[in-house]
Amino acid sequence: MKLNVLQRVIEEILERDIESRNDNFILTNEVYKALGIDTNNNMAFLLRNHAFYKLPSFESIARARRKVVKKKPYLNGNEVKREEMELEYREYSRT
After folding, report:
1. For the segment 5-27, what is each residue's pLDDT rounded down to a tens digit?
2. In whole angstroms, what is the distance from residue 75 CA to residue 3 CA?
3. How far is residue 77's CA from residue 41's CA, in Å, rounded to a whole number?
4. For residue 76, how far is the Cα from the chain centroid?
5. Max alpha carbon distance in the chain (Å)?
6. Does residue 33 contact residue 93 with C-beta atoms inside 8 Å?
7. 33: number of Cβ within 10 Å
């Protein structure tokens, strides 16, 4: 999938689904649904068959999300929650 198409899909999802603004896993699930993938399948099935379904990687989704948010900062979600998670991650990475 081309990144500009992925960005449009992500922008539409972020516009309508507030939860997806705060959680990349929710966003990934919504992207897969938008692509017509049955997300009720188990995760192992999707991971093993990602190439067959031509699913974008988690990294591509996160990268496209960052580009969308850069253009439209109001889609960024809860800044306080993100800052808390970032601090927690930094503390974890130091140990």
Report:
1. 999 999 999 999 999 999 999 99
2. 18
3. 28
4. 12
5. 41
6. no
7. 13
Residue pair 35/55 in contact by the 8 Å Cβ criterion: yes
Half-sphere exposure of residue 82: CA atoms within 13 angstroms, side-chain side: 10
Q: How far apart are CA 94 and CA 67, in angstroms?
A: 28
Tokens of 82: 């993100």
Q: What is the Cα–Cα distance from 76 to 51, expressed in whole angstroms? A: 29
What is each CA distance from 2 to 5, 39, 55, 60, 83, in whole angstroms?
5, 21, 11, 10, 31
Per-residue pLDDT tens over the stretch 45-84? 988 989 998 999 999 999 999 999 999 998 988 766 666 7
What is the rounded CA–CA span in Å between residue 19 and residue 36?
20
Q: The tokens 């927690």 sit on which residue?
A: 88
Report the distance separating Cα 62 and Cα 68, nearest Å: 10
Q: Backbone dihedral region of 23: left (phi > 0), alpha (psi from -120 to 50 degrees) or beta?
A: beta
